[in-house]
């Protein structure tokens, strides 16, 4: 029988449970007395159920730090263990009602407690199955991931798809912003309409206006016939403007007018054309900073940023790295006659240790490269092109190591604070201006 993993968090006092009773029922117990230790165990083992022992007087200590444990671990159902008199404590009642699936009063009735734990495990399992089903329901976009960060993305996609408003998708390059836009489109009332994607950063400035809005015959040299623009072709559906931050200022005016009034003119034309299309935009740059520097119109920014979806970097999705690697290995190996069976353990370790500056796009490229270059039965770090990365890390200077640790701490704290800079600054023990300065230094955006 496979052992179910259980986190037993007992702050401030020795364990009160008979671990043998849990082991006999198929539970593998991991004990933590401090929130920091419990966090590390959560990251390592992926628990679905946690048992929280509430000793008298410990509630005030928990009140200060429980969000650090509970919020990142949304996939865990907690069961509180406490004495009957503690139920009269208002703070204890708040902890239970706010963070726990159920509670159990002392002395422990093991058959009843084990039944409760089993129900909690079953609820999380069903939620995970629903999440996996949600991934499949996103259609051919192949958005893959079961990490808490991606579960939040799936929930946001379902909410955003149900309303017909402009949306701005932010995130680093290679995080799958266009896939997210297509997933939203396919779940929206416009699913039967077209989905037109334009990369504003890949077109010469002189061609963008014609590409977006179309042109009339004779509008300029080479315009030998009328051409419909991508916005017009998106009628009844969605127009996705990738790298919107690269759109020239003079064209931002035209796009703003379309967002406000739903009308535009083709290049060289005088006729006002009315089109019903949902506008989605994406960027990897900080548009608020671009606005302050005069590179992006403030009114257009607020028109586009009615709804916002942030795509997490692969570094924020550590639990997904191996899932994604195996998924893309299967996808690409099925297209070849390769006899490769999978990844070596060292290759998997290197995948987890790599920083992934190119995010999922980089991972895809490395997997495709490995399938071609591999000469054995298992993919090695050399096949992935990661053998020198480890060497580089060994020669990292002290200053580089400090900078890396500082950046990772800021990123992790901002995630825990859900982008709230003031709250993150308090947790880090620094002022808000100092945190903004560090975010600027490390190019950290909360968009």
From TrEMBL:
This is Sigma-54 factor interaction domain-containing protein. GO terms for biological process: regulation of DNA-templated transcription. SUPFAM superfamilies: CheY-like, Homeodomain-like, P-loop containing nucleoside triphosphate hydrolases. PANTHER family: TRANSCRIPTIONAL REGULATOR-RELATED, TRANSCRIPTIONAL REGULATORY PROTEIN. The keyword ATP-binding applies. GO terms for molecular function: ATP binding; sequence-specific DNA binding. InterPro entries: AAA+_ATPase, AAA_lid_NorR, CheY-like_superfamily, Homeodomain-like_sf, HTH_Fis, P-loop_NTPase, Sigma_54_int, Sigma_54_int_dom_ATP-bd_2. It comes from the Bacteria. Keywords: ATP-binding, DNA-binding, Nucleotide-binding, Transcription, Transcription regulation. Residues 143-372 form the Sigma-54 factor interaction domain. The keyword Aminoacyl-tRNA synthetase does not apply.
């Amino acid at each position: 029988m496979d052992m179910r993993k259980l986190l037993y968090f007992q702050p401030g006092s020795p364990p009160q449970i008979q671990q043998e009773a849990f082991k006999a029922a198929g539970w593998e117990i991991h004990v933590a007395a401090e929130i920091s230790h419990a966090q590390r165990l959560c990251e390592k083992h992926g628990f679905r159920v946690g048992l929280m022992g509430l000793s008298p007087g410990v509630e005030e200590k928990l009140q200060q730090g429980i969000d650090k444990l509970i919020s990142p671990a949304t996939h865990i159902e907690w069961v509180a263990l406490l004495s009957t008199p503690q139920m009269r404590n208002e703070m204890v009642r708040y902890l239970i009602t706010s963070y726990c699936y159920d509670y159990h009063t002392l002395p422990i009735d093991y058959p009843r407690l084990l039944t409760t734990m089993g129900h909690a495990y079953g609820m999380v399992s069903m939620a995970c199955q629903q999440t996996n089903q949600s991934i499949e329901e996103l259609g051919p976009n192949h958005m893959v991931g079961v990490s808490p960060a991606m579960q939040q993305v799936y929930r946001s996609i379902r909410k955003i798809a149900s309303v017909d408003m402009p949306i701005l998708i932010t995130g680093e390059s290679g995080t799958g912003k266009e896939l997210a836009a297509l997933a939203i489109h396919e779940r929206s009332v416009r699913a039967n309409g077209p989905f037109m994607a334009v990369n504003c950063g890949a077109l010469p400035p002189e061609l963008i206006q014609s590409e977006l809005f179309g042109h009339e015959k004779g509008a300029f040299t080479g315009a030998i016939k009328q051409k419909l623009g991508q916005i017009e072709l998106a009628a009844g559906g969605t127009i996705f403007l990738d790298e919107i931050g690269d759109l020239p200022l003079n064209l931002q005016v035209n796009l703003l007018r379309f967002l406000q009034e739903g009308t535009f003119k083709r290049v060289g034309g005088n006729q006002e054309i009315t089109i019903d299309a949902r506008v989605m935009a994406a960027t990897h740059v900080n548009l608020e900073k671009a606005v302050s520097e005069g590179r992006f119109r403030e009114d257009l920014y607020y028109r586009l940023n009615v709804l916002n979806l942030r795509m997490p970097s692969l570094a924020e999705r550590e639990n997904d790295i191996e899932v994604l690697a195996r998924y893309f290995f299967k996808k690409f190996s099925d297209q070849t006659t390769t006899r490769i069976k999978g990844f070596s353990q060292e290759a998997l370790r290197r995948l987890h240790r790599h920083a992934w500056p190119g995010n999922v796009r980089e991972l895809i490229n490395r997997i495709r490269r490995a399938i071609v270059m591999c000469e054995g039965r298992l993919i090695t770090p050399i096949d992935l092109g990661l053998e020198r990365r480890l060497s580089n890390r060994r020669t990292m200077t002290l200053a580089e190591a400090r900078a890396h640790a500082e950046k990772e701490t800021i990123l992790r704290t901002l995630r825990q604070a859900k982008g709230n800079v003031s709250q993150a600054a308090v947790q880090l023990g620094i002022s808000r201006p100092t945190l903004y300065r560090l975010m600027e230094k490390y190019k950290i955006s909360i968009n």
